[in-house]
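Sample entry copied in:
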Amino acid sequence: MSETSHNDGAGRPDGVIDPMLWRLALGVADAHEPDGEGGCRNLLCAGEAWPCPPWNNAQRALQIAQAEAAAEATGGTAPHSGWSGAPVVPTARRAGAAPRQSEATASAA
């Protein structure tokens, strides 16, 4: 079984209420890492500055996947109405950590 075909919850915040959305959004964010020269590394974003629209959308999806926790933190308001745009991807992943083999293959597609 591949690393992406199961989910043991490792690395996922406690407040995630939609694990599938979280996992898919994290995969998109990982596939659209910065290339070190101010652009997106994904071939679909050739020439696009980073953060690219897919990475930004993935960040929003990661926040929506934590909607209940975000609503509690904002006093019950809808999490997407006050979206700050602050990255949700764990720092180690954001800092340009090398993607796992399965993610490197997916990002080339």
Observations:
- Residues 40 and 51 are 7 Å apart (CA to CA).
